[in-house]
Amino acid sequence: MISIFIPAFNEAGNLESTVQNIRDAARDAGNVETEIIIVNDGSTDGTQDVIEGLEKKYSFIRSIRHEKNAGFGAGFRAALAVARHEKFLVVPGDNDFPVSSIRSLFLNRDKADMAFLFFLNNEIRGRLRHMISSFFTLIYVTTFGVFVQYLNSPCVYKTSSLRRLRIRSSRFSIIAEVNTKMLRLGSTFCEVPGYRQNGLDGSTSLSFKNFLEVVSTYFKL
Fold first, then answer.
1. In terms of DSSP bridges, do strands 61-66 and 155-158 run parallel, antiparallel, or are they unpaired?
2. Which distant-in-sequence residues (6+ apart) come within 8 Å of 124 by Cβ?
3. Could you tell me which of 210, 197, 211 has the C-alpha nearest to residue 94?
4. I want to staple 71 with a disulfide (CB 3.0 to 4.6 A). Which of 24, 64, 171, 212 is the partner?
5. How far is the first Cα of the chain from the last one, in angstroms, to the nearest whole number?
6. What pLDDT is stored for residue 19 in this prediction?
7. What Rg do the C-alpha atoms of the chain give, in angstroms?
8. Predicted local distance difference test score (pLDDT) of residue 204
9. How far is Cα 73 from Cα 176, in angstroms, rounded to an integer?
């Protein structure tokens, strides 16, 4: 059983396909029981209308609404606080993960304390982004000794283990913070291959605000 957090900031055009991918992956992985928690992080498009429609259509979908944009990390903590299942996974609301990638995570969810996804098609994000990600990973490997292929990877966690952490990040660096802390505490992990399907279209992960938080999180760690 897995609780799935979908962060949604102006994702009116992607949410339904994201939910459908999760449903298809759960079915293909042996009818995995899931709940979906969508956090509308201050969207200004029709995201809330889409969410309300999905809640009426599916009983396993719940939502949280932030009136103002509070950041990915705030949404993560809000979803974690209400998650009902023993496992926890983040699936972006921009429909970046195809069914095959989500299915791989579902199938490997019990093989270790953490089941990481790493991507085989990094070229989809471009040369500069790949260089930045590789440099980021090198810094964390050198400093903290966390030997995973992609530290910001989507990962299936034990919900109870996440709740024992003191999580401080409010934006995108929350994944690096959580994964580093979990690994340093001795969590076992496995890594499974997967693919992206959207590249960097619409991504705000390289914004200056996020860069400042990445630096701040690193020094706090």
1. unpaired
2. 196, 197, 198, 199
3. 197
4. 171
5. 31
6. 97
7. 16
8. 54
9. 11
| Gap between the Cα atoms of 151 and 130, Å rounded | 13
43: left (phi over 0), alpha (psi -120 to 50) or beta: beta
Regions of the chain short of the pLDDT cut 70: 199-207
Each residue of 88-97: pLDDT tens digit? Answer: 999 999 998 9
Whose structure tokens read 């200004």? 44
174 CB-contact burial (10 Å; exposed 0-12 / middle 13-18 / buried 19+): buried
- Beta 189-194 vs 114-119: how paired, if at all? parallel
Specify the DSSP element, H or E, that contains 19. helix 15-28
CA 141 – CA 137 distance, rounded (Å): 6
- What letters, b where the CB count within 10 A reaches 16 and e where it falls short, cover 36-51? bbbbbbbbeeebbebb
217, HSE (Cβ side, Cα atoms, 13 Å): 26
pLDDT per residue over 11-38, tens digit each?
A: 999 999 999 999 999 999 999 999 999 9
**How many other CB atoms are found less than 10 A from the CB of residue 52?**
13
Cβ neighbours of 57 (radius 10 Å): 10
**Euclidean distance between CA atoms 37 and 63, whole angstroms:** 5
Give CA–CA dist 217/116, Å, rounded.
21
- Contact predicate 191/118, CB 8 Å: yes
Contact 211, 173 (CB under 8 A): no
Q: Are 91 and 18 in contact (CB under 8 A)?
A: yes
Question: What is the amino acid identity at position 20?
Answer: Q
Q: Write down the pTM of the prediction.
A: 0.89
